[in-house]
Amino acid sequence: MQKKREHWNSKIGFILAASGSAIGLGNIWKFPYIAGENGGAAFIIIYLVCIAIIGLPVLIGEVLLGRTTQRNPVGAFKKLSNSKFWAVIGSLGVIAGFIILSFYGVVAGWSFGYIFEAINGSFYDFNQIESASNHFTQLTSNVTWIVGFLALFIGITMFIVYAGVQKGIERASKIMMPLLLVILIALMIKGLSLQGAEKGLAFLLEPNWGNVTGETILLALGHAFFTLSLGMGAMMTYGSYMTEKDSIPASALQIVFLDTIIALIAGIAIFTAVFATGQDPSGGPGLIFHTLPIVFTKMTGGYIFSILFFLLLSIAALTSAISLLEVVIAYFVDEKDWKRHKAVITFGIITFLVGVPSALSFNVMSDMTIFGLNFFDLADYLASNILLPVGGLFISIFIAWVWGFDKVLIELKKGSEKLFDNSPWVINYWKVFIKYFAPVLIFLVLLSKLGLLEIILNFF
Ligand code: TRP
Fold it and tell me: Which domains does the chain have, with CATH numbers?
């Protein structure tokens, strides 16, 4: 029995939904703090290279797998290969979805909570970073606060996914993405107008190569995957709601462009303000929740800007979380014949439950560690540093070497006939990168993550 699959209502609908997935906490919370911790401009340049030579090619590949098969990640691999092994690779993606949502939902919950903090004006109670970070610790030690906002966040995510692809995801993205862009541009203009903003710009633009190590490259690559939502089938799932009318390379380029420009704008907005108010740029994960509240109190109109900022962060998180949940839902709808509504309610609740230990890592479970990491850090580490790169590696191997490259090109050409005729170099670029660069580089990075690369290099 073949059910009719829902499709995006318009080309822009897909682009906004996919950019909504890509643009998230990764761009506004993670990117500025890892850039800040790793010396700014030099990190950003390496990150941009990773996006261009690995991110974009793998994104095209993932969307193509989804569109061709019209299936969730497990179904997509099954349909093209008929092999158990590849179905397992697909299911790793579904599992990664749960794991990412569990720590992602916690940070998103903080962001929701901070909208209320901003509205209450509580940031004006502190005048230095210690008191702001104490306040954060106080809030996150409060089980009701942290679990409550996690529940609220997952609840809203479920509400959107419940309404379906067109009426839920696409519609929400069409409202939230333009709003996000407007708020972010307003914040950037505000940041640039502050006295001393140029120090923040210099931090973002003047590379200091002295700080770059092997670890920096690993981080940049891992982040390129994370920020483009690659490696676990989220983009595959969104691609599966595409029709053959639209060009995949063109759409992918637009998504990558939007994701990158928004990370950079967020970086400008945040670092201009951080430097102008004399704060420390290398605040780590706390940059947003410890440093920024102080920054806002030191600028005119800071009250409004603080509300806008946490609203922006929450919107960005929401449009990403819906794509994570949708992977799980698509799997149960396609493969297990579940009704969407039943799947959303069941797996929304399960996601919440998986998120609870991450939330409790900040209070009652803070002493419980596995490999020296608490549950929250473990979920982040496992997903960002292992599951996503492994997923990306297998996705590129599958496309380049298992699927049959002639078939790949026939599928890719659909909707992109003009591009194939006029600019064949684009296709050749993609071919080289997906066949050689992506798998080899990801493999090396994984080896070095496991500490094996050094052993091998020392051997020679
Ligand atoms: N890309 C999102 C961000 O930058 C996070 C995200 C959404 C994600 N879906 C994903 C990451 C799938 C990895 C895989 O915040």
Answer: 11-459 (1.20.1740)
Contact by Cβ (8 Å): 158, 118: no
User: Around Cβ 370, how many Cβ atoms within 10 Å?
Assistant: 10
The neighbouring-strand residues paired with 410 are none
pLDDT the model gives residue 1: 46
Cα 266–chain centre separation: 14
How remote is the CA of residue 417 from the centroid of ligand 1, in Å? 30
Q: How far is residue 80 from each of residues 83, 191, 326, 409, measured CA to CA in Å?
A: 9, 50, 21, 14
Name the closest-CA residue to atom 6, ligand 1.
Answer: 229
Consecutive 10-residue runs of the chain (460 residues): their mean pLDDT? 81 96 94 85 93 95 97 96 93 92 94 96 84 89 95 97 94 94 94 93 86 81 92 96 95 97 94 90 82 89 94 96 96 95 96 92 82 84 86 94 93 92 90 93 83 70
Cα-flanking dihedrals φ and ψ of residue 370, to 5°? -125, 130
**Phi then psi for 414, rounded to 5 degrees?**
-60, 125
Q: In this structure, which amino acid lies at residue 50? A: C
Say if ligand 1 is within 6 A of residue 21 CB.
yes
Residue 322 Cα to ligand 1 middle (Å): 10
Q: Which of 324, 331, 351, 387 to mutate to test the pocket of ligand 1 (most atoms within 8 A of CB)?
A: 324
Which backbone phi and psi does 171 adopt, to 5 degrees?
Answer: -65, -45
172 lines ligand 1 (CB under 6 A): no
DSSP secondary structure code for residue 280 in this structure: -
Work out which ligand 1 atom sits closest to the CA atom of 234: 12
